[in-house]
Structure formats: structure tokens, C-alpha cells
Amino acid sequence: MQSYWMKTLNNESTLELREVAQPEPGSQQLLVRLYAAGLNRGELLTGLSAIGKAMGMEGAGEVLKSGAGVTGFQPGDRVMGRCTSAFSEYVLMDLHEVMRMPAALSWEEAASVPLTFMVVYDMLVEQGRLAAGEWMLVNGISSGVGVAALQTAKALGARVIGTSGSAEKLARLRPLGLDVSLCTRAADFHGPVMEATSGKGVNLVVNAVGGSVFAEGLSCLAFEGRHATVGYVDGSLTAEIDLETLHMKRLHLFGVSNKLRTREQRASSVAGFITDVLPALADGRIRPLVDKVFAFGELAAAKACMDANQHLGKIVLAMPGGR
Q1: CA 320 to chain centre
Q2: How are beta strands 53-54 and 2-9 bridged, if at all?
Q3: How far is residue 307's CA from residue 310's CA, in Å, rounded to a whole number?
Q4: Does any domain span residue 280?
Q5: Are residues 310 and 181 in the same domain?
Q6: Same domain for 7 and 88
Q7: DSSP 218-279
Q8: Are residues 126 and 109 located together in one domain of the fold?
Q9: How many helices (H) and strands (E) are present in the chain, helices listed first?
Q10: Residue range of the domain that includes 221
Q11: How many domains does the chain have?
Q12: 155 domain-assigned
């Protein structure tokens, strides 16, 4: 089967399309014929080994075969899930990562869900405790995570303020429920945020930009507000913290990453997502925003599009023979 790998040498990354053996499912695994896979910025950064690493982390497709101990899934079932090697024709999905694909979604839309919306679930529900009527601020709202955060927050009944350097992207997000749009890439949004919230501040900040807006985001939080760090596209990995504000407002700061989570922790999140969010995807309250779909042979072009920040929402790779 065909599979994309990335090698890094002297800080330069190279994509390689390799011919590799089709995997066999082990215990508690499904062999899935992928029809679409979502791109995510983190997997396309440099810093991988010279040997190379199979690329892709989320996808949607059809079950072909089950490993030992698998119940509840049959060949032909339409599924989506997080997995390794998602830029491949066939993948293995661990049973605790697999979700049934809502009939309302296309392959491309379903491939945009498993990683991105699971990150958002962790950020808004599990850690962020966002409730109906509360305010959320998203820095970098035009990203895949930013758009999914907007859609999920609206399904939860929250109000959303978003920042982006593109007025055109912000305009395209208003029909999705964006309450307040701030066209800026700078740390200058405290005043408009406080005005929109009648001086109270927001209950949750989603920082998908990085250290350059961290302090400003902190200043926008209400009493007992929560601040989520989910990305640092600005390359700034450090920021000052106003300890007096942290102390007096009883703020909660947290990061969003799966790298150090246990298998059990990840499985628990999937189960919660299936209960809390999947129904909104099934009935149309949430519809993943797919900006561009690239053919399987166009991964380099898809990566260039993501690197140039040309997209709004998700970029998806369509697999050979997809239907």
C-alpha cells in the first residue's frame, strides 16, 4: 500500500511516498480502508528523525477486518478515529479510538473530527467546563481547532469572541455563530473584549496563537476564568504571568495535549465525546468546516497551503479510490 512519510535532515523536512506492507490488526484493533484524512499543523513541523515517520493522525473510512477481542464493529462499518499513519491507504485503529461515523457527514467532514474535535472537547468540556451563557475568547479562530471550538461552544450555548488577522475569514465565521469578531494579530484586544462582556471578562480563553498573546488573554479573564493553551504558531514559547491577577481572580491555566496521557485517559475522553458531542454532529448542529480537499498525490501542496495559513477550518487529503 502507499503511505506518506516525513524525514528531517539539517532542519529541512522531506515528504516521501513509500510502498509499505498492509498492516494486520492485532488484539483490540480494526483494519480500516481510509477514504479521507485530516491535516494537522503539529504533525507537519520539522524536528522528526532522518529515518522518517509515517504521517497522519486522523481519518475516516470503512472497516475491513477485526483483530482478536473486537466486538461491536463489522466489515463495512463506516468509522472515524485517531490513528497513526493516516496518510496511508490502510490504517490500524485501536478499538478505544474508533467512533461510528454519523450518516450526515461526508468522508472529508468525518476525517476532520477525530483529532480536532477531540482536542476541543478536552479544552471546552473536560478542562474548560464551558457552560451555556458563558463567554469564550479564541485567539486564532480561523484555524481548524479555532473553528471547531466556535462550533462546539455554540452547540453548548456559549457566546464567542474571535480574533484573526483576516477580516474575510472572520466574515465567513459569522454565519457559524461568531458573536464578536476582532480583526487583529496583535495583543491589543483587551478593551474590545471587556466592552463586549460589560466589563466582566470572558470565562474561557482558547489560545491557539502562543506566547505573544498570552498575557493579554489572561487580562481578559473573568473571576474564576480558565485559560487553555493549545498552540503556538507565533513561535513564542514563553510569556509573563501577572501573579496578582492569577491570585485574585482564582484563575485556572491548563494545556491541551495528548502526548503524555495514558491509554485509559484517552479512552475516557472518546467515550465522553461520543455522549456529549457526537449527537450534535449527527443531527447537524455541528458541521465540520472543510476548506480545501487535496488529492492523495498532492500532500506537498496541502502542506504548503497550511504553512501559508490560506485555509479556514480544515484541510483534508482524499485517498486513492475514495468514494
Answers
A1: 24
A2: antiparallel
A3: 8
A4: no
A5: no
A6: yes
A7: HHTEEEEEEEEE---TT--------HHHHHHTT-EEEE--STT--HHHHHHHHHHHHHHTHH
A8: no
A9: 10, 16
A10: 117-255
A11: 2
A12: yes
Residue 126: all three cell numbers together? 473536560
Identify the band that residue 46 occupies on the pLDDT scale cut at 50, 70 and 90. very low
Q: How many CA atoms lie within 13 A of 144 on its CB side?
A: 24
- CA of residue 130 relative to chain centroid, distance: 17
Would you say residue 53 has pLDDT above 70?
yes
Cα–Cα dist 61/43, whole Å: 20
CA–CA distance, 287 with 212 (Å, rounded to integer)? 31
Strand pairing report for 159-164 and 135-139: parallel
Per residue in 191-246, pLDDT tens? 999 999 999 999 999 999 999 999 999 999 999 999 999 999 999 999 999 999 99
165 within domain boundaries: yes
Spatial distance between the Cα atoms of 158 and 151, rounded to a whole number of angstroms: 10
Residues 240 and 196 occupy one common structural domain: yes
User: Tell me: the pLDDT tens digits for 75-107?
Assistant: 999 999 999 999 999 999 999 999 999 999 999
Query: What CATH number is given to the structural domain containing 34?
Result: 3.90.180.10
Neighbours of 321 (CB within 10 A): 9
* Cell numbers for 281: 454532529
The pLDDT-based confidence of 161 (bands split at 50, 70, 90) is very high
248/321: higher pLDDT:
248
Q: Is the pTM of this model over 0.90?
A: yes
Query: Is the confidence at residue 49, as pLDDT, over 60?
Result: no
Whole-number mean pLDDT of the chain? Answer: 94
How far CA 5 is from CA of 61, 94, 266, 309, in Å, comes to: 20, 21, 25, 22
